[in-house]
Write a structure and sequence with these properties.
The protein is built from five helices and ten strands. It has helices at 3-41, 85-100, 118-129, 180-188, 210-214; strands spanning 45-46, 56-58, 64-66, 74-80, 107-113, 136-139, 157-161, 167-172, 198-200, 203-205.
Length: 218
Amino acid sequence: MNLQKIGQLAFVVVASLSVYAFVAAAKEGENRRSCSALCALRPNYAAFERKAPDFELPNLSGGKLRLSSLRGKTVILNFWSKSCPPCLEEMPSLAKLGHAIAKNPKVVLITITTDESAEDAKNTLKSLLADDVPFEVLLDPEGKVVADVFGSKLYPETWIIDAEGVIRARVDGARDWGSRSVLDFVESLNAPLTCPIDFHKGQPSGSARGLCEDMGHR
């Protein structure tokens, strides 16, 4: 092989490596953009393979709401009870989240209480939020939806369901729902980019799982 051919081959190799490095860097940058909100939220569960089970429950006004009627919107679904201190502690931040998304027609916040009656729920909410309750409240006193359908035993528990009805995240325990990271994650569900990271038992998994630690979310 003469020197000219060696030079040409070397050029091809260097060019190929440069293209590979560029594509890899672009892919990592895309993953960082699409995963940053999920990593910051750090849910107990996050994936794409489960559809939310449908249900219908009465609300505080005496009407009924079916989950599937909200298809086309991102649904933030929170389970609570007056006998759950962490539920009561996070309620003001849920109200803050409700106000933050109030002008976004693509997002809705729904809570389900397992308290015995609408009167119980109203009294609890009044003591916590006065008359400012910026979200729908559904009643499930026998736990037929919360426990039997969703399998929830401990509250609070919050499910984030995308516009296609897919469960994208579940958070166990109280959180500051008024934080920017929650809004960023909810907004990220409407973007075409998808994050290649899942969460199981609060730990990231998948080929890009190291990004969460790289971005300072542990």
